[in-house]
Design a protein that fits this description.
Distance between the termini: 29 Å
CATH class: Alpha Beta
CATH architecture: 2-Layer Sandwich
Number of domains: 1
Number of helices: 5
Radius of gyration: 21 Å
CATH superfamily: GHMP Kinase, N-terminal domain
Helix content: 10-25%
Order of helices and strands: HEEEEHEEHEEEEEEHEEH
Shape: elongated
């Protein structure tokens, strides 16, 4: 997912280095760049987070906001389920190729990827708990992500930020009452409590997955490819893994080639092994972020924050 063009000598240097077990930035093949995580960045949102993978200006930076709203049920929709609606936008300042309409295809691709991982039973969220009254009302969680900077590893940064944002999300408490109508029939009505101190977390949110993206470079694969490594990538595969180390989703990257079938089993096993350490790291970063909230909103030059 990069338009960076490297000279033949640069391509050869990166490829040969990976094949010999070292990377240009000194990492091992299964090492992720430094991750920075902050939560509750958008005061008007029900939950939000910002994740940067890599150093400032040299990594990928993502801001995610969660906005919850009550929707009225219409025939044809699931009778007792809530929903999650995802949208990803690449800021024109994130990369030169995103100016004008350059990011439209990538926006669609990333939105579909995020939706696949977080909207459904594989996400771990109990969608039935987002239903307020069957066939009447339910919660919709709008997940809006803004790519502030793109320097490799875009999907993993997006997933990390979305998971943190959903973990930080609090929904107003809803009071449901049964009231008799003129004919004596009981009708269910609800009231959303407008009290910032009386809110609840999303049930099942602790089961949300993380993703590990593998890039094939030469005859070997690495995780969390840098922008330069993506420029010589032959194939990529993103694997979403639950906290129980179960595979939730698999997404092929936007490269012409795919991984050889002989490597897929090894990649799945490696994804589980890497995810075990990444969940521990995520927990540490999230708890630190939650205890050091500043509420600062970044300047994005976008209409993104206006949605809240």
């Amino acid at each position: 997912m990069t338009s960076l063009i490297l000279s033949p000598s640069e391509q050869d240097f990166i490829t040969r280095g990976v094949e010999k077990g070292f990377r240009a930035d000194g990492r091992g093949s299964l090492d992720r760049r430094e991750v920075t995580l902050r939560t509750n960045m958008i005061s008007q949102a029900n939950g939000s987070a910002r994740c940067r993978i890599g150093h400032l200006g040299l990594g990928t930076d993502v801001l995610v906001g969660i906005k919850a709203e009550v929707n009225t049920w219409t025939p044809g929709e699931p009778e007792s389920l809530g929903s999650i609606v995802c949208n990803v936008e690449c800021s024109p300042s994130a990369a030169q190729e995103f100016e004008g309409r350059g990011a439209e295809d990538l926006n669609v691709e990333l939105t579909q990827t995020l939706d696949r991982m977080f909207n459904g039973p594989q996400s771990g969220i109990d969608m039935a708990k987002l239903c307020i009254i069957p066939k009447q009302a339910y919660w919709v969680l709008h997940v809006d992500a803004l790519m502030l900077d793109v320097k490799g590893g875009i999907v993993d940064a997006l997933v990390w930020a979305t998971r943190a944002a959903l973990l930080s999300t609090k929904l107003p408490r809803v009071v449901v009452e049964s009231i008799a109508d003129e004919d004596g029939n009981l009708q269910s009505e609800f009231d959303v409590v407008d009290d910032a101190e009386d809110q609840v977390a999303i049930e099942g949110v602790e089961n949300l997955p993380l993703s590990v993206t593998f890039n094939q470079i030469g005859k070997r694969f690495v995780i969390d490819a840098s922008e330069q490594e993506e420029a010589v990538t032959q194939a990529s595969l993103t694997v979403a893994v639950s906290p129980q180390l179960e595979i939730c989703a698999v997404q092929k990257g936007g490269f012409l080639r795919g991984f050889p079938p002989s490597l897929l089993s090894e990649i799945m096993q490696t994804a589980r092994r890497v995810a075990r350490d990444e969940f521990a790291k995520f927990k540490e970063l999230y708890e630190t972020a939650a205890s050091n909230q500043t509420g600062d909103e970044p300047s994005t030059g976008s209409t993104f924050l206006g949605a809240f």
